[in-house]
């Protein structure tokens, strides 16, 4: 019997023995007098304290799960769905196995077998929450994260993604080997083609998003000096998207929390689909994004969308490019990466020699000459080979020998005497030094 049941027995026996009234017994147990009278009748009718014990004691509940089902759930987790959290595992059981269980039931079954959640949640620091934007398309958050998305089946690679702040819809995502400008550009192109042009973009301060020279003093900012932009920043300026660069990861918390969700769920989904490479993962990614958006997307507080419809005349491949300036040479040629290029088609505009033009390189490696808002394709041309000039070998001159009456070979003076042995050796040494100096000068 439990402690509460033992207390009931003691009180009922005191009431039956005349030591307490029904009112006093009911007050002691927190019951009404009517309930106290019922307890007395049960005690008398069933022969003592056994009548106050709960009738389901020792019985299996009607809604209890079958042991075979518990065993099946445990084996499936260990062999097929390992690593998934309780909520995701309950969804996978219903989707793939036809087993409907609540996350709490799944948790109890696994804990009974000593299986804890793969990733223990750590208490995060408290940060003041920021309200979602009111309309879809007012702000996108963009980021990338490297992770072992295919576990040990392939090397780790980076997932680039963008999420709408108001609805939580992942507007675009792509896998690349590393975090790169191409990955962010592809994500933006996906989002713009599927939803439209957003009004703002929130990113970190990676050099992909900002130029390393983007440092201005307060005086320069007040004077309205324009900042140098990166290639990605120039694309945002062309599309009239306000680009905000966060100082801390918590400022763009929605995309940071998305990585936790993807690292929990996307890894399991890719494993179940049998994906073995990054290219296969990219082909399956749109299907997984649709599933994620149906599960986690919310409605915005204001129904009108803030997206600007994309202009059909604007080619996004010509926007998300590498941009450099070159000087035109004679014959409509220019130099780029050590190679000579010329116009692939006749130019509709006049291009003067030594005029400064902009060269754009697309994600596919196509080179374009951007001149007066027009894209002119370029083609590589061969460099003219110059005939090497013949070099004349320098003739070696014979060392000049001094004459016999040269001052180095003779002594002179007012009182000329016969050279002594010491003087003769000194003069011979000076002569040889002079001769070597003459040869070196020649």
Automatic annotation (TrEMBL):
It comes from the Bacteria. Residues 380-393 have a biased composition (Basic and acidic residues). InterPro entries: Integrase_cat-core, ISNCY_transpos. Residues 380-442 are annotated as: Disordered. Residues 422-442 have a biased composition (Polar residues). Transmembrane segments: none annotated. Residues 125-317 form the Integrase catalytic domain. This is ISNCY family transposase. It comes from Paenibacillus brevis.
